[in-house]
Design a protein that fits this description.
By secondary structure, this protein is of the alpha/beta class. The protein is built from six helices and nine strands.
């Protein structure tokens, strides 16, 4: 089975390289990180299909092309400190840890307690250097700020000011911004302490919603 996963992983990377991946460090990360370890047993056979997939507690793991697009927009470099909001099963954290290398620091916030614990165990078992906590990602992680990059892996009506405030100068945030149905990827860059906003025009996306104080109104 391991050889089948390896073959499927290589096929996925070939597809991503032809579609969205332009950065070698991102290509290598997708090749080295075993996506099958970040999904439930029942869907492992479909781990390398280019689709979003259900994981645990009603959450999803984004499709590879979506993740790759966001990582390309994030412009990650070795040694950076990065925060992921809505870190789910930990797959994107694992990719980020691979890209930032031994001198990088990667942090994830997941609001679903059981999912935060599951991802901690997965990352630990894979010996991946990433720290996860259960909490409200819309508030960020002040104790570990500032961050060079922040990726929001869930839909938000706007990028929370708390997260922008925790960004380093010249840092950037990539997030799906819109309503709870569809979103566009927004890039927010801190220049001289002020936000510079850009929008990725390459398509419309649909993420599970960010849950927290600075997000969609709760019913």
């Amino acid at each position: 089975m391991t050889k089948i996963f390896e073959a499927n992983r290589k096929k996925m990377v070939e597809f991503l390289s032809g579609a969205v991946v332009r950065t070698e460090s991102i290509r290598k990360a997708f090749l080295n990180i075993k996506r099958e370890n970040f999904v439930p047993e029942s869907i492992k056979d479909h781990a390398y299909e280019d689709t979003a997939a259900p994981i645990w507690k009603g959450q999803t793991i984004s499709q590879p092309t979506t993740i790759a697009t966001m990582l390309e927009l994030l412009l990650v470099k070795e040694g950076m400190k990065i925060l992921e909001v809505g870190s789910g099963s930990g797959y994107v954290l694992a990719l980020l840890s691979e890209i930032t290398g031994k001198d990088g620091k990667v942090f994830g916030i997941e609001i679903v307690p059981e999912l935060a614990e599951t991802s901690k165990k997965i990352l630990e078992n894979q010996k991946i250097n990433a720290e996860v906590k259960n909490g409200d990602g819309s508030l960020g992680w002040k104790e570990n700020a500032p961050f060079d990059r922040i990726i929001i892996s869930c839909a938000c009506p706007f990028i929370p000011k708390n997260l922008f405030d925790q960004l380093s100068e010249d840092g950037r945030i990539v997030a799906p911004v819109g309503d709870q149905g569809t979103q566009l990827l927004e890039i927010l860059i801190k220049k001289d302490g002020k936000p510079v906003k850009k929008t990725f025009e390459g398509g419309v996306f649909s993420f599970v919603p960010l849950i927290g104080k600075n997000s969609f109104p709760q019913k």
